[in-house]
Amino acid sequence: MAKRTRPALDLARYREPLAQILAAVAADPNLSRQRLARILKRHPKDGRGLFSKDELIAAYRALAGTGSVPPYDAAVVERLRMKPVRTLSGVTPVTVLTKPYPCPGECVFCPNDVRMPKSYLANEPGAQRAEQNGFDPYLQTYSRLAALRNTGHPTNKIELILLGGTWSFYPETYQVWFVTRVFDALHDFGDGIDRRDAVWAALREASQLHPERNTASVPVHGAHLERTYNQLVQSLYRDEMRRSREHAQAIARGERERTVIDEYATWDELEAAQQANERAACRCVGLVIETRPDNITPDEVIRIRRLGATKVQIGIQSLNDEVLRLNQRGHTVEATRRAIRLLRRAGFKIYAHWMANLYGASPEADIEDYRRLFEDADFRPDELKIYPCSLIESAELMRHYESGAWRPYSHDELVRVLSACFLATPEYCRLTRVVRDIPSTDIVTGEMTTNFRQVVEAALGAQGLRSADIRAREVRHQTVDPNALTLDVMAYESSIGEEMFLQFITPERRIAAFLRLSLPVEPLLLPELDGAAMIREVHVYGQSLALGDEAPGRAQHSGLGARLIEEAAAIAAGRGYKRLAVISAVGTRAYYRKRGFSDGELYQLRDLSPGAAPPVEHAPNTESGYK
User: Fold this and answer.
1) pLDDT single digits (tens) 216-270
2) CA–CA dist 219, 231 (Å, integer)
3) Lateral strand order in the sheet of 497-505
């Protein structure tokens, strides 16, 4: 599929109706969807159609302060914002997929779509965007930022989510290049520079991954697999893989001049890009990668941290060794224990994937398995994706379905399992996703409801119950009085010591901000962390605001993050720790420096010893804008 660009709106032609619409929107602080629809109908486009929201937003940015259109006000864009839920958790997420590539796993439940990185399907929204952009990190990032901005979302504070197969299995040169190019896109977008045409031209000329040239489509039926996903991918993309490898090697030897699509960058280049991002207009305030427990080693953890990652998505799937064996997962529960311990010793946020209805499981066993996630101190993830197993035609699970050895849970069974999961989730964990966003056309049989979170919440509500997880309690767009919030501190054991979950909550226990503090009793992973407690995450909820924006009654930019950091410092000092470390994202380093932290090699640290210089005080709306 070729790149498609909709023609720019002709402002001169439509200035009069747009000005009238925008003036009416600006004059209505309580604008509803219905009232906006009536305004649009009064001022149709070409006498019959309706202007889209992204057209209105583009027109407002161009016309604000001219003629009858009032001066620019971020609140007006917020009224027109499409899908505001995307940024209601305080940051703007941008998901970028890696290219199709072999995977160390042979899981029976995994799709075998050779057009995609392992476990992804070409019909999933994020996968479609990746394929349309030739899996190029610059194109994916830039295009997503442009789409978000066009639909009214702030693009100053970005959480980068790098997904696709097993990140740790890709060559190191590819990983460094991929992250560097993502940062290049952030910087160009923030500076108003668009280099996409050059990237597109290079892809069209040389890469099989260009959407007009990528014809790799081999129908695969899981019950009759003749070749594995890895064998197919290596065969279909043999020339592409050889080209990428040989070009990277030639560039490293100084024998080839680099192009914008050559998968090569040095660690020094990445570090320079990270440093530039510290004060960029479009900052990375979190970077997430996705991997498997058996790929986590001390060296791998350090490499991930050097890339700038702050959170790791890790496929736990099950805490039952027999279920893991039956599903050909390729690792044991003990590997998961080791991986989480290593990640905690480096301060990472633990974002686990867990699956219900796997081959060999049952509803009762799944409920017990999920409870074990939080009863056992070796696990206790910070975030979770719950993925009930869906049957995809290309997955090897088809064999077990056709033989009668596996069946999908009924709707009622799944509601019962997930209801128990919701109730077993503690306040310190966030259920980020419930049910994977797989189009119903790709599911052979079983539950196809995409809004299953709402289904489960309704079932619990009918019993007077609700989940206590973070996502269910976020303040989101609610008005918040920072002075009326209560600081609540929850302590629990982890595999390396004690965790403290500090949260500012409303009287109804709605959460406005939180901090994760690790108080280790065993050494952290790197010498620079010796004797330190660790801040693993600070997050302030509510609609994401642009740098410098203020919104009375909103949690963001109200100083809650700074207050939590001071509480964490007091707790750590009271426990005898001499230093406080933070696993900061590159775009938040400036903020932590203002809170008394100094740069280490991979972390930032603050001296807690008596007589240490106090942090520099700043107004709540800091330059970083993250807290």
Assistant:
1) 777 788 888 888 899 999 999 999 999 999 999 999 999 999 999 999 999 999 9
2) 14
3) 486-494, 497-505, 511-520, 532-540, 579-582, 604-607, 598-599
The single-letter code of the amino acid at 399 is R
In this prediction, what percent of the chain has a pLDDT beyond 90? 69
Give Cβ neighbours of residue 458 (< 8 Å, ≥ 6 apart): none
Residues in the chain, overall count: 627
Q: What is the pLDDT of residue 561?
A: 94
Domain that holds residue 192: 99-287
The residue whose two tokens read 């747009």 is 18
Query: Contact 91/625 with Cβ under 8 angstroms?
Result: no
Phi, psi of 576 (to 5 degrees): 95, 5
For 586-614, letters b (16+ CB in 10 Å) and e give bbbbbbbbbbbbeebebbbbbebeeeeee
SS3 124: coil
H/E/C letters for each residue in 513-561? EEEEEEEECCCCCCHHHCCEEEEEEEEECCCCCCCCCCCCCCCCCCCHH
Type of residue numbered 216: A
Residue 462 and residue 482 in one domain: no
Task: Say whether pLDDT at 373 is over 60.
Answer: yes
**In angstroms, rounded to a whole number, what is the distance separating the alpha carbons of residues 432 and 118?**
21
Write down the residue that tokens 């407690």 correspond to. 533
Mean pLDDT of 343-363: 98
**Which tokens go with 440?**
């119903």
Taking the C-alpha atoms of residue 100 and residue 114, their distance in angstroms, rounded to an integer, is 7
pTM over 0.85: yes
SS3 172: helix
Q: Looking at the structure, tell me whether residues 348 and 364 fall in a common domain.
A: yes
Is the domain of 450 the same as that of 478? Answer: no
pLDDT at position 616? 63
**In this structure, is residue 510 part of a structural domain?**
yes
Q: What is the pLDDT of residues 553-608, one digit of tens each?
A: 444 547 899 999 999 999 999 999 999 999 999 999 999 999 999 999 999 999 99
- Contact at 8 Å (CB) between 585 and 571? no
